[in-house]
Amino acid sequence: MPQSSKKLRVEDVMSTELLVCDPEQSLADCACRMRNDNVSSIFVKQDGKIIGVWTEGDCAKVDFSDPSIFHQPVKAHMTSPVKTVDHLTQLSEVTVLFHSYGFRHLLVMKGGGSEPVGVISLSDVVRSQGLEHYLHFKTIESSYVSEVPIAKSDLPIAQVSEIMRQRHSNFVLLDNPAVGQTGIITERDLLTMLSRQQVDQQAWHYASWPLLTVHYQTSLYKAYQILKLKQIRHLIVEDDNGKILGVLALRNILSEIESAYMQELETVLHQRDRALQKSQKNLYLAEQIINASPDGIMITDSRNTILQVNPAFTQLTGYSEQEVLGQKPSMLSSGRHDKSFYDKMWAQLRQKGVWQGEIYNRKRNGETYLEWLTIICIRESDEEEALYAAIFSDITERKRNEKRIKTLAYFDELTHLPNRRLFNDRLEMALATAHRDDTKIAVMFLDLDHFKQVNDTLGHSAGDLLLKQVAKRLQSCMHEGDTLARLGGDEFTLLLTEIDEVKNIHRCAANLIEALKAPIQVGNTEIVITTSIGGAVYPDDGEDAETLLKHADIAMYRSKEIGRNSFQLYKPAMNARSLERMAIESKLKHALINNEFSLYYQPKIDSFTHHVVGAEALLRWHDNELGFISPANFIPLAEELGLIVDIDIWVINAACKQIQIWQKNGFFDKRISVNVSALHFTQGDLAQTVKNALSIWQVDGRFLEIEITESSFIRSLEDAKKVLKALKKLGVSLSLDDFGTGYSALSYLARLPIDTLKIDASFIAKVPDEYGNSQIVKAIVAMAHSLELNLVAEGVEQAHQLAFLQELDCHAIQGYFFSKPLTAQQFELFCEVHRPAKQQMDLSSNNSQSLRTR
How large is the average pLDDT for residues 436-454? Predict the structure, then answer.
């Protein structure tokens, strides 16, 4: 049990939110006040005294079939008397009271027991012990309730509350075959009904659904975090096949923590009782520990005569026990310390009873070594003779290592370039020199483009190898007097001194970009990496190190904004862009909560009939202050901030919702495709996300297409294959987006369940005029036909591009030639114009209008 708990009192952990009412106040009013204050209990006060308490748990005892129940006074249902505890009582005593009374809440009193000041629960005591770590080591399967009350969804609330009361449960599950869902009614829901005086609907009307589910082997800690995050009290426990095994309640988890707390409390008390009985054994153990200690130990008397040494002493000094017993410690002296050193040592030892420090001594063979020595004065009483214990260890090698580490403190361990500390020191020196000599210096900030993608796809070890190679290439561009440093991650800085002309900075940046132009071999993979560089000049762009680095960083981000793989010199106008980026980052964190996202739909067109054969859902963000923000600006930010998985989940659900609306109206029966981030494969559960969305919106999987990029599976083909197969089981179609622009995926096409290839717009933009691009497109189309894969050509904007694709027998196209991305309403109007004369509704039919190549 944590030691801090011994000092904690009731007032340190209690809740001061004490809600009180009159005895005649109605149950409905009391429930309403409890809901408004978000508390689970209300105390009944009469003539200035607390006479009872009514809790959320008492709601199940209420007869909801009685029409007068809402207006009945709370005194008829309260628990009385209320158990109390003084605010200064120690927590260890409170625990005993909880078990003695059999209650979970105690009223906290002050002023000799006359003034109520708060309430304390057993959970408050347990949480103060910091025992949540215990939940990491237990899984849900040991704690959930398997025997759960289940009722029909059309029952009245009165019967549901009766079931809750009979089963001594704080919830009832409701089965609704009509919607294929299971809901839940809890004591809190009953409290809400009392507060609103509404119980005339069937139970399903008040139920919460669909329910959050967890796997039975999930840790209790993770389940605890989910409950706190979602602010709910129950989770449905499922097995490997999605079958409901039972319910895990917050109460179950708190019971586990309480159990752990009581076990630790009992252990502490048991250990205390045994401590006195084990004193003799402890003395024996202490002697054994001294003998087994790797540190040398020497015991002397007050006359400085050696009385005892341990085996480690013999090993470290080379002297045997017989050679040193009865001798003086001075036999070990190295001669490297003067009399003043020893005088100060003994003065501190007499004053404080202990001395610690480094000292040189000599071994039996004459070798001098450095040791860390601790001398302790041991005296049971003032009348007893003092003994001295000297404990020492040889730190010679450690000192050598520390010297090496101190040398390395100024250099990056991975690339051996100067690190941030050394770079800053050199920058400060260069600034002082430039100021004195009235010369210019330049600071450049380099950031590798898309380096995070390398780490996410090939792994951090490959990323480290890439950084080493990049460092070598950048170093080859340096001149004497320049400093190249690695700040961390994929960030490098460069200090250029004695700058005569600004064009020299541009020339240096061009050399750096050129140095990285050739592919870098990492293992069996060739990686093409580029860099975005920003620069700032002293004194034009700043007169101190912080300002120069900040402005170089701003210029580097500007380089990324205009297309990466380029250099930008700082301009004051860039500050506004930097502030804009910060504003976008700040607002992005709240965009989902504020419902600022929307979906636009770009039609996929049959290149011959010009009929709509599908659509791609494209995310758009409109902020009230910033207006429409390009996905190119906020999607990379979302990935950096760890928000991309939540955004993916929103997009998938929004698309499924729109599919449901269109199908109910008999409007659209083709697939809607949705792009997902490659990070969803490593940071989320993509298959479960899609499964949940299809279930919630009652959409057949064959109407949804998931678009992925090659980076989604380049790191682990087997893991990606499992995710894609799980999606295929849901009936979802899979499309490979931006094909041919990333890593070569030819070897994966036959191994992964891909249905469609999307020819990237960068290829389509240059056909049929540019020979190389035209041949690439022809090769992709031919390969897709051979593998019987669907094809979609993106970015079709010109009639001659359409004609070229028609000649290749590429049927599905997408681009501004027919339509830009449209709102849902605009898309409906577009489809009406391009609707075929005879609808073919069955997507599963061989004769359906599908995206499969002919």
Answer: 89
